[in-house]
Amino acid sequence: MAIHVVVGAGPVGAATARLLAERGERVRVVSRRGAGPEHPAIEPIAADATDAAHLTRLTAGAAALYNCANPAYHRWDIDWPPLAAALLTTAERTGAVLATIGNLYGYGPVDGPMTESTPLAATGVKGRVRNQMWADALAAHEAGRARTTEVRGSDYLGIGANSLTTLVLSNVLTGRRVVLPVDFDVPHTITYVGDVARTVVAAATDPEAWGRAWHVPSPPALSVRELATRAAALAGARTPRLTRLPYPALWLGGLVNPFLRELRETAYQFVRPYLLDSSAAQRALGIEPTALDEALTESLGALRPNPGASSATLSS
Protein backbone atom coordinates (compact mmCIF):
# COMPACT_ATOMS: atom_id res chain seq x y z
CA MET A 1 0.00 0.00 0.00
CA ALA A 2 1.63 3.22 -1.19
CA ILE A 3 1.14 6.73 0.18
CA HIS A 4 -0.17 9.38 -2.21
CA VAL A 5 -0.35 13.09 -1.34
CA VAL A 6 -3.09 15.19 -2.97
CA VAL A 7 -2.80 18.97 -2.68
CA GLY A 8 -6.22 20.56 -3.02
CA ALA A 9 -9.62 19.37 -1.80
CA GLY A 10 -11.74 20.75 -4.64
CA PRO A 11 -13.66 18.60 -7.10
CA VAL A 12 -10.59 17.16 -8.84
CA GLY A 13 -8.62 16.70 -5.63
CA ALA A 14 -11.55 14.98 -3.96
CA ALA A 15 -12.18 12.72 -6.97
CA THR A 16 -8.48 11.81 -7.16
CA ALA A 17 -8.31 11.03 -3.45
CA ARG A 18 -11.43 8.85 -3.60
CA LEU A 19 -10.14 6.95 -6.61
CA LEU A 20 -6.81 6.23 -4.95
CA ALA A 21 -8.46 5.18 -1.68
CA GLU A 22 -10.86 2.86 -3.50
CA ARG A 23 -7.82 1.24 -5.13
CA GLY A 24 -6.41 0.44 -1.72
CA GLU A 25 -3.87 3.27 -1.41
CA ARG A 26 -3.26 5.52 1.58
CA VAL A 27 -4.03 9.15 0.79
CA ARG A 28 -3.17 12.45 2.46
CA VAL A 29 -5.24 15.41 1.28
CA VAL A 30 -3.54 18.73 1.99
CA SER A 31 -5.57 21.94 1.98
CA ARG A 32 -5.66 25.13 4.00
CA ARG A 33 -8.90 24.08 5.76
CA GLY A 34 -8.06 20.42 6.20
CA ALA A 35 -10.97 19.32 4.02
CA GLY A 36 -11.28 16.07 2.12
CA PRO A 37 -13.57 13.13 1.29
CA GLU A 38 -14.64 10.87 4.12
CA HIS A 39 -12.91 7.50 3.75
CA PRO A 40 -10.90 5.35 6.18
CA ALA A 41 -7.86 5.51 3.89
CA ILE A 42 -7.97 9.31 3.44
CA GLU A 43 -6.23 11.58 5.94
CA PRO A 44 -7.19 15.26 5.57
CA ILE A 45 -4.44 17.64 6.69
CA ALA A 46 -4.66 21.41 7.18
CA ALA A 47 -1.46 22.98 5.87
CA ASP A 48 -0.08 25.74 3.69
CA ALA A 49 1.23 23.98 0.58
CA THR A 50 3.48 26.93 -0.26
CA ASP A 51 5.61 25.90 2.75
CA ALA A 52 8.01 23.55 0.97
CA ALA A 53 9.62 22.34 4.19
CA HIS A 54 6.29 21.31 5.73
CA LEU A 55 5.03 19.82 2.47
CA THR A 56 8.25 17.84 2.16
CA ARG A 57 7.66 16.30 5.58
CA LEU A 58 4.10 15.40 4.64
CA THR A 59 5.25 13.85 1.36
CA ALA A 60 8.22 11.87 2.68
CA GLY A 61 7.92 8.29 1.44
CA ALA A 62 5.03 9.06 -0.92
CA ALA A 63 4.84 7.51 -4.37
CA ALA A 64 3.24 10.58 -5.94
CA LEU A 65 2.33 14.18 -5.24
CA TYR A 66 -0.78 15.46 -7.05
CA ASN A 67 -1.16 19.16 -7.73
CA CYS A 68 -4.94 19.55 -7.70
CA ALA A 69 -4.88 23.05 -6.23
CA ASN A 70 -6.96 25.86 -7.70
CA PRO A 71 -6.15 29.41 -6.56
CA ALA A 72 -8.74 32.14 -6.99
CA TYR A 73 -9.20 32.85 -10.69
CA HIS A 74 -8.17 36.50 -10.45
CA ARG A 75 -5.05 35.70 -8.39
CA TRP A 76 -3.31 33.13 -10.57
CA ASP A 77 -0.32 35.37 -11.30
CA ILE A 78 0.12 35.97 -7.56
CA ASP A 79 -0.71 32.62 -5.98
CA TRP A 80 0.43 30.04 -8.53
CA PRO A 81 4.20 30.78 -8.70
CA PRO A 82 5.00 30.18 -5.00
CA LEU A 83 2.66 27.19 -4.82
CA ALA A 84 4.07 25.56 -7.96
CA ALA A 85 7.62 26.20 -6.76
CA ALA A 86 6.91 24.53 -3.39
CA LEU A 87 5.35 21.49 -5.07
CA LEU A 88 8.28 21.08 -7.46
CA THR A 89 10.80 21.52 -4.64
CA THR A 90 8.96 18.86 -2.64
CA ALA A 91 9.04 16.45 -5.59
CA GLU A 92 12.77 17.03 -6.01
CA ARG A 93 13.46 16.44 -2.31
CA THR A 94 11.26 13.38 -1.83
CA GLY A 95 11.37 11.61 -5.18
CA ALA A 96 7.57 11.55 -5.37
CA VAL A 97 6.21 11.86 -8.90
CA LEU A 98 4.72 15.33 -9.39
CA ALA A 99 1.45 14.99 -11.33
CA THR A 100 -0.17 18.35 -12.09
CA ILE A 101 -3.71 19.13 -13.16
CA GLY A 102 -3.34 21.60 -16.00
CA ASN A 103 -5.73 23.08 -18.55
CA LEU A 104 -5.82 24.29 -22.14
CA TYR A 105 -5.13 27.97 -21.47
CA GLY A 106 -1.48 27.62 -22.39
CA TYR A 107 -2.26 27.05 -26.07
CA GLY A 108 -4.08 30.34 -26.52
CA PRO A 109 -6.47 30.76 -29.49
CA VAL A 110 -6.03 27.81 -31.85
CA ASP A 111 -7.55 26.93 -35.22
CA GLY A 112 -8.45 23.26 -35.10
CA PRO A 113 -8.24 20.56 -32.41
CA MET A 114 -5.61 20.95 -29.70
CA THR A 115 -3.16 18.07 -29.19
CA GLU A 116 -0.34 17.72 -26.68
CA SER A 117 2.07 18.90 -29.40
CA THR A 118 0.16 22.12 -30.11
CA PRO A 119 2.53 25.05 -29.38
CA LEU A 120 2.11 26.68 -25.98
CA ALA A 121 1.65 30.12 -27.49
CA ALA A 122 -0.68 31.87 -25.03
CA THR A 123 -0.09 35.58 -24.57
CA GLY A 124 -2.59 36.12 -21.71
CA VAL A 125 -1.53 36.25 -18.07
CA LYS A 126 -3.20 33.00 -17.01
CA GLY A 127 -1.91 31.03 -19.98
CA ARG A 128 1.64 32.27 -19.45
CA VAL A 129 1.49 31.38 -15.74
CA ARG A 130 0.44 27.81 -16.56
CA ASN A 131 3.11 27.53 -19.26
CA GLN A 132 5.86 28.63 -16.89
CA MET A 133 4.74 26.07 -14.33
CA TRP A 134 4.99 23.28 -16.89
CA ALA A 135 8.30 24.58 -18.29
CA ASP A 136 9.84 24.49 -14.80
CA ALA A 137 8.49 21.01 -14.07
CA LEU A 138 9.61 19.64 -17.43
CA ALA A 139 13.08 21.16 -17.03
CA ALA A 140 13.43 19.47 -13.64
CA HIS A 141 12.36 16.17 -15.17
CA GLU A 142 14.77 16.43 -18.09
CA ALA A 143 17.61 17.36 -15.72
CA GLY A 144 16.90 14.27 -13.60
CA ARG A 145 15.96 16.32 -10.54
CA ALA A 146 12.32 15.18 -10.46
CA ARG A 147 9.77 12.96 -12.17
CA THR A 148 6.86 14.99 -13.52
CA THR A 149 3.77 14.79 -15.70
CA GLU A 150 0.74 16.96 -16.39
CA VAL A 151 -2.83 16.25 -17.52
CA ARG A 152 -4.98 18.87 -19.22
CA GLY A 153 -8.75 19.00 -19.60
CA SER A 154 -11.38 21.44 -20.79
CA ASP A 155 -14.35 22.88 -18.84
CA TYR A 156 -15.53 20.43 -16.20
CA LEU A 157 -18.66 18.42 -15.57
CA GLY A 158 -19.08 16.48 -12.33
CA ILE A 159 -19.71 16.77 -8.62
CA GLY A 160 -18.40 20.06 -7.26
CA ALA A 161 -17.29 21.36 -10.66
CA ASN A 162 -17.20 25.14 -10.81
CA SER A 163 -17.15 26.26 -14.42
CA LEU A 164 -19.29 27.90 -17.05
CA THR A 165 -20.97 24.54 -17.66
CA THR A 166 -22.02 24.44 -14.02
CA LEU A 167 -23.74 27.82 -14.36
CA VAL A 168 -25.56 26.58 -17.45
CA LEU A 169 -26.80 23.44 -15.69
CA SER A 170 -27.87 25.34 -12.57
CA ASN A 171 -30.05 27.66 -14.61
CA VAL A 172 -31.46 24.80 -16.68
CA LEU A 173 -32.56 23.01 -13.49
CA THR A 174 -34.31 26.07 -12.07
CA GLY A 175 -35.77 27.27 -15.36
CA ARG A 176 -33.86 30.53 -15.29
CA ARG A 177 -32.59 32.16 -18.46
CA VAL A 178 -28.93 31.45 -19.24
CA VAL A 179 -27.15 34.75 -19.99
CA LEU A 180 -23.50 34.30 -20.90
CA PRO A 181 -20.85 35.93 -23.14
CA VAL A 182 -20.68 32.87 -25.43
CA ASP A 183 -21.72 31.73 -28.88
CA PHE A 184 -24.17 29.02 -27.91
CA ASP A 185 -23.78 27.18 -31.21
CA VAL A 186 -20.03 26.57 -31.58
CA PRO A 187 -18.63 23.18 -30.47
CA HIS A 188 -16.81 23.11 -27.14
CA THR A 189 -15.11 20.14 -25.47
CA ILE A 190 -16.35 19.25 -21.99
CA THR A 191 -14.29 17.11 -19.58
CA TYR A 192 -15.70 14.95 -16.78
CA VAL A 193 -14.03 15.35 -13.37
CA GLY A 194 -13.95 11.59 -12.83
CA ASP A 195 -11.96 11.19 -16.05
CA VAL A 196 -9.49 13.84 -14.88
CA ALA A 197 -8.89 11.76 -11.74
CA ARG A 198 -8.48 8.53 -13.70
CA THR A 199 -6.03 10.17 -16.10
CA VAL A 200 -3.84 11.84 -13.50
CA VAL A 201 -3.59 8.65 -11.43
CA ALA A 202 -2.72 6.63 -14.54
CA ALA A 203 -0.07 9.16 -15.59
CA ALA A 204 1.42 9.41 -12.09
CA THR A 205 1.78 5.66 -11.69
CA ASP A 206 3.09 4.76 -15.17
CA PRO A 207 6.80 5.53 -15.77
CA GLU A 208 6.12 5.60 -19.51
CA ALA A 209 3.80 8.57 -18.95
CA TRP A 210 6.33 10.76 -17.14
CA GLY A 211 8.09 13.68 -18.76
CA ARG A 212 5.18 14.85 -20.93
CA ALA A 213 1.65 16.24 -20.84
CA TRP A 214 -1.55 14.33 -21.56
CA HIS A 215 -5.04 15.41 -22.56
CA VAL A 216 -7.84 13.97 -20.46
CA PRO A 217 -10.04 11.62 -22.52
CA SER A 218 -13.19 13.63 -23.23
CA PRO A 219 -16.37 12.95 -25.24
CA PRO A 220 -16.95 14.58 -28.63
CA ALA A 221 -17.39 18.35 -28.45
CA LEU A 222 -20.88 19.81 -28.48
CA SER A 223 -22.31 23.29 -28.38
CA VAL A 224 -23.50 24.92 -25.17
CA ARG A 225 -26.99 24.88 -26.67
CA GLU A 226 -26.77 21.12 -27.20
CA LEU A 227 -25.42 20.66 -23.66
CA ALA A 228 -28.25 22.71 -22.15
CA THR A 229 -30.90 20.97 -24.24
CA ARG A 230 -29.65 17.50 -23.32
CA ALA A 231 -29.45 18.46 -19.63
CA ALA A 232 -33.03 19.74 -19.72
CA ALA A 233 -34.22 16.48 -21.26
CA LEU A 234 -32.45 14.40 -18.62
CA ALA A 235 -33.79 16.59 -15.79
CA GLY A 236 -37.32 16.89 -17.11
CA ALA A 237 -36.90 20.66 -17.15
CA ARG A 238 -38.32 23.25 -19.56
CA THR A 239 -36.59 24.05 -22.84
CA PRO A 240 -33.54 26.22 -22.03
CA ARG A 241 -33.70 29.92 -22.73
CA LEU A 242 -30.30 31.17 -23.88
CA THR A 243 -29.20 34.78 -24.32
CA ARG A 244 -25.76 35.87 -25.44
CA LEU A 245 -24.22 38.65 -23.33
CA PRO A 246 -22.50 41.18 -25.61
CA TYR A 247 -18.75 41.56 -25.07
CA PRO A 248 -19.06 45.27 -24.12
CA ALA A 249 -21.35 44.21 -21.25
CA LEU A 250 -18.71 41.68 -20.11
CA TRP A 251 -16.05 44.37 -20.28
CA LEU A 252 -18.14 46.80 -18.24
CA GLY A 253 -19.01 44.14 -15.67
CA GLY A 254 -15.31 43.48 -15.22
CA LEU A 255 -14.86 47.00 -13.89
CA VAL A 256 -16.52 45.94 -10.64
CA ASN A 257 -16.35 42.13 -10.68
CA PRO A 258 -12.85 40.49 -10.59
CA PHE A 259 -14.14 37.19 -12.01
CA LEU A 260 -15.83 38.87 -14.99
CA ARG A 261 -12.69 40.92 -15.55
CA GLU A 262 -10.65 37.73 -15.87
CA LEU A 263 -13.12 36.29 -18.38
CA ARG A 264 -12.05 38.94 -20.87
CA GLU A 265 -8.79 37.04 -21.37
CA THR A 266 -10.46 33.69 -22.05
CA ALA A 267 -13.56 34.88 -23.94
CA TYR A 268 -12.10 33.45 -27.17
CA GLN A 269 -12.74 29.94 -25.84
CA PHE A 270 -16.50 30.35 -26.26
CA VAL A 271 -16.79 32.29 -29.49
CA ARG A 272 -14.97 29.81 -31.73
CA PRO A 273 -14.67 26.01 -31.78
CA TYR A 274 -12.71 24.84 -28.71
CA LEU A 275 -11.67 21.28 -29.44
CA LEU A 276 -9.51 18.92 -27.40
CA ASP A 277 -7.93 15.87 -29.05
CA SER A 278 -7.39 13.20 -26.37
CA SER A 279 -6.57 10.28 -28.66
CA ALA A 280 -2.96 9.99 -27.45
CA ALA A 281 -4.00 9.45 -23.82
CA GLN A 282 -6.76 7.06 -24.82
CA ARG A 283 -4.24 4.89 -26.67
CA ALA A 284 -1.34 5.11 -24.22
CA LEU A 285 -3.20 5.06 -20.91
CA GLY A 286 -6.13 2.88 -21.95
CA ILE A 287 -8.78 5.35 -20.76
CA GLU A 288 -12.03 5.98 -22.56
CA PRO A 289 -14.13 9.06 -21.74
CA THR A 290 -17.23 8.66 -19.60
CA ALA A 291 -20.44 8.93 -21.61
CA LEU A 292 -21.87 12.46 -21.64
CA ASP A 293 -25.27 11.40 -20.28
CA GLU A 294 -23.60 9.72 -17.29
CA ALA A 295 -21.52 12.80 -16.50
CA LEU A 296 -24.54 15.07 -16.96
CA THR A 297 -26.75 12.95 -14.73
CA GLU A 298 -24.19 13.06 -11.94
CA SER A 299 -23.74 16.81 -12.31
CA LEU A 300 -27.46 17.50 -12.33
CA GLY A 301 -28.01 15.33 -9.27
CA ALA A 302 -25.40 17.28 -7.33
CA LEU A 303 -26.87 20.62 -8.40
CA ARG A 304 -30.52 20.00 -7.58
CA PRO A 305 -31.71 22.60 -5.03
CA ASN A 306 -33.75 19.89 -3.30
CA PRO A 307 -32.66 16.30 -3.99
CA GLY A 308 -36.18 15.11 -3.23
CA ALA A 309 -37.95 17.60 -5.49
CA SER A 310 -39.81 16.36 -8.54
CA SER A 311 -38.93 17.36 -12.09
CA ALA A 312 -42.15 19.38 -12.25
CA THR A 313 -41.09 21.42 -9.22
CA LEU A 314 -37.63 22.03 -10.61
CA SER A 315 -38.93 23.22 -13.94
CA SER A 316 -41.73 25.41 -12.67
UniProtKB/TrEMBL annotation:
Residues 6-209 form the NAD-dependent epimerase/dehydratase domain. InterPro entries: Epimerase_deHydtase, NAD(P)-bd_dom_sf. Pfam families: Epimerase. SUPFAM superfamilies: NAD(P)-binding Rossmann-fold domains. It comes from the Bacteria. This is NAD-dependent epimerase/dehydratase. It comes from Salinispora tropica (strain ATCC BAA-916 / DSM 44818 / JCM 13857 / NBRC 105044 / CNB-440).
